[in-house]
Every structure is written in C-alpha cells, then in structure tokens.
Amino acid sequence: MSRSSSFHQPAGTLKSLNEARQLLDDARRDLTENRERAQLRPSHTFSPIPGFFPRTAELQAVERALEEEPCFTVLFGASSVGKTALLRQVLCSDKYHVLHFDLRIAGFADLDSLYMSLSQQMEQYFATIAKIEGYGEFEKEAWGFKHDRLNVERRIADNTGMAQIRTSDIARLMELFQSSLLTYRQFVPPSPNSQSSSTASRDSISSQANQSKPKRFRWPWQSKSPSDRARKPNANGSPQDRAQSAEKDVPKPVKKMPVFFIDEAHKLPGLIQSMETMKCLLDSMLVLTKQDRLCHVIHATSDPFYQTWLRQLNVMQHCKIITIGDCSKSDARTFYHERILPRVPERLRHSLSFERLYEAFGGRLVHWQDYITDYVNANGQLESEHLVK
Ligand SMILES: Nc1ncnc2c1ncn2[C@@H]1O[C@H](COP(=O)(O)OP(=O)(O)O)[C@@H](O)[C@H]1O
Ligand SMILES: [Mg+2]
Description:
Blueprint (H helix, E strand, L loop, with lengths): L1 H7 L1 H30 L16 H12 L4 E5 L6 H9 L4 E7 L8 H20 L7 H21 L8 H20 L11 H14 L14 H6 L7 H10 L8 E7 L4 H4 L3 H17 L4 E6 L2 H9 L7 E4 L5 H12 L5 H4 L4 H8 L3 H13 L7 H4 L1
The structure holds adenosine-5'-diphosphate and magnesium ion (MG).
Protein name: AAA+ ATPase domain-containing protein
Keywords: Coiled coil
C-alpha cells in the first residue's frame, strides 16, 4: 500500500528523501563541528599587547569600572590613542570571560555575519565554561546557540520568503544569552568532595541549582569592601603587593565576570542597516547590564558621532563614558626611557632628545614607536621632516 502511494506521490517521496538527506548532512556537519570545537583553544582571554606600557590612571579607570556592578561602558578616545591596548591588558586577567568582536576585521560584512559570529562566540563561551570541573551541564547552554544557528541557517538555505537575518533572530539570540547567563550566575557547583561519580555529581548540580534561593547574586570579586578595593594593587603594584594579593585570592573564584567587548563599535550602524534591529541589539545590551547586571558591555570607539547616535537612540543616558587621551608628559618620559631608548643602539642615542621628540609626538605612544623603528632602520640618518610628520 505504502509503496503504491509513494508511486502515486512522487513529489512527496522526493521531499521526504531530501529531508532525510538533509538530516544526514546536518548530523555529519554536527560531528565535524564537534570535532573541530574540541580542538579549539579557549577563547575567553586574549593576550596583552607585547611590551604594553602600563598607564596607571587609565588602567585604574577601566579596572574600577569593571569591578563595579555590570554596566554598559563606552570607551572613547582618538584613533591609536591606546584603547584596544588598554582593554587587552585589563581583560586578559583571569577574572574575565571575554566575548570579543573587532568590527574592523573583514569577517563582519553585514547583519548575517554579525549574527553568526555572535552566536558562535556565545556557544563557545558556554562550551568553555562546560570544561570547568563541575560545570559540565553548561554544554547544554552551548547547544542552545548552535541549534538556534542551525535553524536560522536552514531557513536561509531554504530561501523561502524571509531569507535573511531579521530583528527577531537577534532578539531571540540575545534572550538565549540572557537566560544562559542567568543560569550561570545562579549555578552552584558541587563541592569537590561531595560526590565522586560524574553522573551523581550532575544530579547534585541541578538539585543545588534548583534549591538556591533567588537572593541577589554578586560576582565573586564584587563582594570586596571599598577599603579592600583601595588596597588592591594596580598593574604597577610592587611584586610583594601582587604576591600578597595572590595569597589572599586563594582559592580563586571559578566564576568569571562575562565581558561583551565590541571594538570599533561605531561600525555597528553601518553593519546593521535596520534601525529596529539596531535598537533591539542595543536594548538587549542594556537589559544585560543595567537591568539584570549579568555582564559588562564595553563599546570602544574613536568616533564622537557614535556617542551622539547612541544618545539619539536613548542608550547613551544609561552608559558610563571613559575617555582615553594621550599619555601625560611624565608618562611619555618614562616610556621614552624604559621602552624607546633601550631599542636604540648606544651609538645612535646621542642625537635623540626627549623634549624635541615630545614636541613632535606628544603622548601618542604609537608615533614614538614608529619613529624609533624608522630611526634605527635608517641607522640614525633620518631627515628632520620625519619629526614634522
Ligand atoms: N600602553 C601602551 N603600551 C605600548 N604600546 C601602546 C600602548 N598603547 C598604545 N600602544 C601602541 O599604539 C598602537 C595603537 O594602539 P591601539 O590600542 O590599537 O589604539 P586604539 O585602539 O585607541 O585605536 C598599538 O598597536 C601599540 O603599538
Ligand atoms: Mg582600537
């Protein structure tokens, strides 16, 4: 019977065959993806830039903002002033889990690529958490992002009607992220000596998580008193300071503060043509920060119009602004003696003068670095117009 009916409905048979093939392809792709993911390095930290020169005041401003309640911060400063360098330095700390989007890179061409990257990074974020002992069940949160993405990819491949990423896709993705972060924040891992078998400990994880009272959660390092905070050494702190604080910090909190960092954020309006989608993304970032205090959001930008634009969307009023300028003269002098002069062979040093160079480059470290590279390469034979440049 069924055979004859399939002959009578060749289109239906073809359709179910295609669906079966699609399922097989999906399963194969899942397998490959899982294999690839197992080989990925954890991406929650990035490296500080080599030879970072610690700018005490700026480091403190950024660190202090991150120690406070999760908020939406706009880090503003002229191009090449050192915003990215500063954030890389601070965010590479063990305290943070970073989702990093550098909108300058070619991978971000449009809303579709932004959605894919957001979804992949969120998936990988929870997959990384799942690798921590006792946090295995976060693998499920990671799958949530993957399946949402696969559904979207399937819809786009089917090419029926609305083939592209829509506002609702962004809204759903950000809601998934919000709910996974809530689970992460409320999660109480089993104490290491409570259970030994992994299945038993998983059961205890969920029961503990369920039993945990909905009290106001503070991320581990937020519970410090203001006096503790005042004592906290900065990146310049003496080795003893650091050793003491390392001692105090043992055992280290496993939970890390999530930080959603968008570099060159002024490119967002170009990527997201629809005002509605843009508003949806920004509003959900406000929900993550101001409303739910689930993670920090940092937008770094050198474009003053971006601030105006955020204000027009009623977002700027809820943001903290940190402005980064050039280094002070005394910082520039230290930089010159500690970082610049050692790069110059002794025989070429006599014709360099801090004051003259400062007149030309002020406190923009990258100009000092570029000049000195040229100077050394030219064996000290640079024309003076280099300084004017
Ligand atoms: N604190 C610093 N220490 C050493 N080099 C720095 C520092 N800040 C900036 N630089 C140099 O300046 C360059 C530009 O800095 P970057 O952080 O990319 O600027 P921005 O993000 O503000 O455009 C860096 O690649 C680096 O060479
Ligand atoms: Mg930058």
